[in-house]
Amino acid sequence: MKFILVWLLLLAYAVFFAPGSEGSDPVMDNVFAGNWTAIDPLVLTVFNSLGIFPLVFLTILLRNDRWKWPAWPFSLAAFAGGAFALLPWFAFGDRPAKRSLRTPRWILRILQSKIWLILLLIMIVGNLLTLLQGFSLTAYGDAFMESSLVSVMTVDWFILWWLSVEAINRFYPDVKNKGLAWMPIAGPVLVLLLDKQSS
């Protein structure tokens, strides 16, 4: 029930309440124009992280895809829809069902490998290096109020963070170092990397 409620609130926020200019979206215009230097590094880092989060969910969900609804369509849809795509699966798709793992063995081997997990961490750290260019919380706040893209993606980012912690708690309840899952994006990957039983 909580996932459906969050999903409905997210939809309502995106459609009715997200701040932003009524005309063209300044951040979206710069994204489509490839004008990255005009975007604050923190805005750019959050934007890029929304492309990394789905890889984290693919890793967690496909390693545990034994449930009533297949996880892979929702995980792939998260690349375009973020939490909008994942919340319905968390609400309904994880209902227990007696079946074997759906994920092909060769994909499972990749997702369970330390090399894959380390590669994810490298991507996460590489994205954070964008912040070394200098960033401004004030500039981010201005972008949040002026751009519906930034306002919605910010809320989406926080929900994805929460869902990643929920996923670790659900599928790996007894894993060591579970508290690391609260570290945004990298935390769930570190939990899997450091715990041998999660492989």
TrEMBL record:
It comes from Jeotgalibacillus terrae. This is DUF2834 domain-containing protein. The chain crosses the membrane at residues 42-62, 74-93, 113-132, 144-164. It comes from the Bacteria. Keywords: Membrane, Transmembrane, Transmembrane helix.
